[in-house]
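Title: Prediction job returns without error message
Component: structure pipeline
Severity: low
Priority: P3
Assignee: unassigned

Description:
Job completed but the reporter wants confirmation the result is attached to the right record. Sequence as submitted:
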Amino acid sequence: MPEDLRIASRSPVSSPTMRDLLAVIFRQRRVALITFVLTFLAVVTYGLLVPSYQSEMKVILRRGRIDPAVTPTPSQVEFERLGVTEEEVNSEAELLQDDEILRTVVQNAGLISEGRSWFWSLAGDNDGRRLARAVRRVSKRLTVETVHKAALINVNYKSSDPEQAASVLQTLASAYLERHHHVHRPSGEFNFFDQQVVQSRRSLEAAELQLMEFMRDRGVVSAEQQRDSALQKLSDADAENRQTQVAIAENGERIRTLQSKLSALPERTMTQIRNSDNPQLMERMKGGLLELELKRTELLTEYEPTYRLVQEVDQEIAQSKAAIAGEEQAPIRDQTSDLEPNHEWANSELLKAQVEQRALAAHGEAGTAVLAHYRDLAHELGNSAIAQELLVHDLKSAEEKYLLYVNKREEARIGDALDQGGILNVAIAEQPTVPALPQLSGLSFVLIGLVVAGAVSVGQAFVTDYLTPSFRTPDEIVALLGMPVLASLPRENVLDMQVRGGNR
């Protein structure tokens, strides 16, 4: 074996070069050309006959308001501008691709009938499968992307029908807003608070009626104030009763002192004494004596001194003289006396003290009765105040509960009205419109056709060359058969020799 053949048989297979790659394409140029033309025509034809239209809408997230929290105290709806977090944006983007929303879109947009065919009918197709396939198609055509560093979500839908693309996005927007409303604001809140308002109003009316009946039956308006007033009056009555008892004891001691003083003081005192005769009596007595003497003288002229009449006259004269002498010896005494001032003062003070003592005793008895009355009244009003306080507490609790549910119902009503009016945490910033132009123009499809046709034709050339059962280079013989190659001729030289031989 020559040396050069041994060297050739031992030489390793070299890696393919660009020349080798181009040689493959050159060898399969007919296949590559046919594949290129067919692929290019297919892509351009598809782009021109079945263009792809894309409708777009944008969803913006915002913090227009915060839903009021359900608390036992009234709250106010706050309107403020807050930032939207990345988690919330991603959550809304996932919600846009929710299967339930897509099923609603498919049903409302009438996309179930697109996947109906005789093949699926033979395979036992039904409404559930058709709906699932339609949801899968819509999910593939739907693109939801979040905008970097912005509270925006871009939603795109591709379809060969421009009106269908816009209709699907509009249906998606409606279904998404409704689902967002149900997710972030559960339904039935207004009805719940409305029922609670009715029940709390009945409780409030019952509490008011019970308090009014209590006030009417007990005869009180404000038992606490009346109790305090009764306690104040009870304190005043008790103090006055104690003062009365002190006054009674003081006045009794005064009466005893005055009585002891009256027994030692004289009732009257002598102020003037006068002694004087009675001139009229003396004149009459002396006149009578003179008449008796004249009568004796007359009788003596006629009778003897021993005569009875003379003796009687003598006796009368003797009596008259004795009376005159006695009258002269005992003159008339004129005595003048006045009341003792100390005795009179003590007596009058005693009388006043006795009257005052009776008055104080009566006042003490009445004060004791009043004190007992105020004590019983204060005790009764104390019990009434406790009962009324409990009723008032129940009334205030019922009123607070009623006002709370009224406020919560109003907040729920305002929230529902704002949600229905579009004042949500999300809003459609750009409404979907019917695209007038396809997503890609004719020139774009030509360029895409060239790229795709080139790639497919090159691949087809390599596949065909790989599947061809013939040796094309000495290296393939050495690599596959392990046999040395003594000589090799280019294909062009072989064809020339065949042509020359044919001409001969």
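Comment from assignee: result matches the submitted record. Residues 116 and 122 are 11 Å apart (CA to CA).
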